[in-house]
Design goal:
By secondary structure, this protein is an alpha/beta fold. It contains 17 helices and 31 strands. The strands form 10 sheets. The chain has a 7-stranded mixed β-sheet, sandwiched between helices. A 5-stranded parallel β-sheet has the order 7-6-8-11-12, with helices on both faces.
Length: about 625
């Protein structure tokens, strides 16, 4: 069967399609039914099943003879360490850590926050939670203490599992002070923490609250896998929305297992035993789905890479890891390739490595620009597949179904909708637009298994954020079009979310930080185009009347506050001081127009603008920062 047959089979009977895929999962009690639409427009899949994620990702492979196969290859150029964890070892480690959590009172349904860098133990922590039905919420290490505190308050975890430090090139990121600050700042109190001490920067433990990862496991009875219901949340992952309050995306257990398993062969074209590498971070959805869960559920070997595409030690690192570990399918963000291309434009460094094991490169997380795709194809000599998805879905909405049938690549398009997704382009009134017409990208409900059923403790917000604009559809927040062959093109976000080096950030959250600076009267943050990171945040600030603080000091303070409140990952370094902001007559800030001016793009003067002269002032303020060129 080709792609169009498979898609048609899904369309003809979605429930039958997913019940068939569900056979790949080992159930304690198989689902009697695929879809539960009794609460529509809220949907659940495989609700009445009983299952355990860790069993499917680890134990069953040991039972089926894969115990000695590498489950995890750890490659850390930043610490000069390499190691391999077999499935059997992963089972022992996971059961032991889960035993500690259980003995300290963590039960199914309790939340556990994980704040760890890219080490195999981060996966062990995630799987240990899954083993006992605890709901983990991993927080990316590049966020500041404030963001961690926000997540502690929202997820109300019983415990936090953290490492003593993370490692960035040339800098040790001390996690423990950040953790302590966050715990102090949060209203919710955690019962205990488990701390993995790293040699590079061990930390002091607080008696009675902090426990050492290894010491706590002494003499512990390993924990068995606890069956949970199909709709039990496997994890919560916070992602940026329009406001400063992040959205807690809920991942349902059974749908997650079924859908991720399906993607490994059909999209990434790997068989059990093959080595799969996603160069991302466990703090992002790519890390959840494709560093941890999907490869393990499918019986692959996953690579945990603690390093950067450049500088650890050079732009040849990716090629070395592929060659050395026999990687078959490789997944990363376009920004990583832009970084390599900038450092080694001719791709000279790849000549030192034999990467003939590699069959394809997959790009996602941000728009893949044609230059980068063509460069990667030329240098690596493998097909490059763009694919489009979101934290909310957890896996591909549109991609190239290579394991079913490789579709011809059209550069600039992530290819076609995957079975499960009925993608439509809608106008403002919700009418379906014809091919090649730009509109809002929406997915007809129900979304497929594994996608978010709701937001953590915020079902009303889920409905208003995703379901209200286009009744009967899930609003993706992206704008784009479909061509006459059904190929999708993703053009821009329709909201205040920006994408910086493949990291999803909220300009609304950044505006809240700037607004709190005492000299700032009014502010706006926009995403401007950047050749390396795709976008960079740029803040406009209007100072309070009579303010006598030197402008440089205010700018420096804004940058520091952003780093201290949101974190270094915001990469916030551009600030322009202006007298006023362009607005409509009803007072809405014209952020889209400011983006166009900054990017030196053509734009139509908004009909509702209050005073067109302000746009010249905006342009003049942007030019010293290297934007709004004539
Ligand atoms: N913990 C702590 N700090 C972190 C961090 C982490 N896990 N990840 C990034 N940071 C910090 C960086 O050290 C940097 O700090 P600095 O301002 O002191 O230099 C800041 O956050 C910005 O980081 P980043 O956006 O990664 O920029 P960079 O200039 O360090 O590196 C790239 C640029 C392109 C090499 C890098 O962004 C990259 O590898 N991107 C791949 C993106 C990716 O994997 N995305 C996941 C989605 S698929
Ligand atoms: P995240 O939730 O962090 O994965 O970010 C999801 C958003 O990143 C999407 O809504 C898009 O705006 C953007 N995105 C992800 N993948 C792609 C892609 N292949 N092409 C264009 N944009 C993408």
């Amino acid at each position: 069967m080709g792609y169009r047959d498979v898609y048609a089979a899904w369309q003809a009977d979605p429930e039958q399609f997913w019940m068939e895929q569900a056979k790949a999962i080992d159930w304690v009690k198989p689902p009697s039914k695929a879809l539960d639409d009794s609460q529509a427009p809220l949907y659940e899949w495989f609700t009445d099943a009983q299952v355990n994620t860790c069993y499917n990702a680890v134990d069953r492979h040991v039972e089926n003879g894969r115990g000695e196969q590498a489950a995890i290859i750890y490659d850390s150029p930043i610490t000069d360490t390499k190691s391999t964890t077999t499935y059997a070892e992963l089972q022992t480690q996971t059961a032991s850590l889960a035993g500690v959590l259980r003995d300290k009172g963590v039960v199914a349904g309790d939340r556990v926050i994980i704040y760890m860098p890219m080490e195999p133990e981060a996966l062990v922590a995630m799987l240990a939670c899954a083993r006992i039905g605890a709901i983990h919420s991993v927080v990316f290490g590049g966020f500041a203490a404030h963001e961690l505190a926000v997540r502690i308050n929202d997820a109300t975890p019983k415990a936090i599992i953290a490492a003593s430090c993370g490692l960035e090139p040339g800098r040790i990121v001390d996690y423990k002070p950040l953790l302590d600050q966050a715990i102090d700042a949060a209203d919710h109190q955690v019962d205990f923490t488990l701390i993995l001490q790293r040699d590079q920067q061990p930390c002091a433990l607080i008696d009675g609250r902090d426990y050492d990862w290894h010491a706590a496991q002494d003499g512990v009875t390993p924990a068995d896998c606890v069956p949970v219901a199909g709709n039990h949340p496997a994890y919560i992952l916070y992602t940026s929305g329009t406001t400063g309050a992040p959205k807690g995306v809920v991942r349902p257990t059974a749908g997650h297992l079924v859908a991720l398993h399906w993607t490994m062969k059909n999209i990434y074209d790997v068989d059990p035993g093959d080595v799969f590498w996603a160069a991302s971070d466990v703090g992002w959805v790519v890390g959840h789905s494709y560093i941890c869960y999907a490869p393990l559920i499918h019986g692959n070997t996953t690579v945990v890479f603690e390093g950067k595409p450049i500088g650890t030690p050079d732009a040849g690192t990716f090629w070395r890891v592929i060659a050395e570990h026999n990687v078959r399918s490789f997944f990363t963000a376009p920004t990583a390739f832009r970084a390599i291309k900038r450092e080694d434009p001719k791709g000279e460094m790849i000549k030192d490595y034999d990467i003939s094991c590699l069959k394809a490169l997959y790009l996602a997380g941000e728009r893949a620009d044609p230059d980068t795709i063509e460069w990667a194809q030329r240098v690596m000599n493998v097909p490059v597949y763009d694919h489009w998805w979101q934290t909310e879905t957890g896996y591909t909405i549109a991609g190239n179904p290579v394991g079913i049938e490789p579709m011809p690549v059209k550069i600039g398009s992530p290819t076609v909708a995957m079975p499960g997704y009925d993608v439509q382009i809608l106008d403002d009134e919700g009418a379906v637009l014809p091919p090649n017409t730009l509109g809002a990208i929406a997915v007809k409900l129900p979304l497929p298994p594994g996608t978010l059923p709701t937001l953590w403790n915020a079902t009303d917000r889920f409905k208003t954020s995703y379901l209200a604009t286009f009744p009967g559809y899930y609003e993706t927040g992206d704008a784009g079009m479909v061509d006459e062959d059904g190929y999708l093109y993703i053009m821009a976000r329709t909201d205040d979310v920006i994408n910086v080096a493949g990291h999803r950030l909220s300009t609304g959250a950044m505006e809240e930080v700037l607004a709190a600076q005492p000299d700032v009267g009014e502010c706006a943050v926009i995403g401007v185009t950047d050749a390396l990171k795709g976008q960079l945040p740029l803040g406009f600030i209007c100072l309070n009347k009579g303010c006598d603080t030197p402008p440089e000091a205010i700018i420096a303070d804004c940058i520091k506050r952003m780093r201290d409140t949101i974190g270094p990952v915001a990469a916030f370094k551009l600030v322009a001081i202006v007298d006023r902001l362009p607005k409509t007559r009803s007072g809405k800030i014209l952020r889209g127009t400011m983006v166009k001016i900054a990017d030196s793009a053509d734009f139509k003067m908004p009909a509702t603008i209050d005073d067109p002269a302000i746009l010249n002032e905006i342009k003049a303020a942007l030019q010293p920062l290297g934007y709004a060129k004539d």
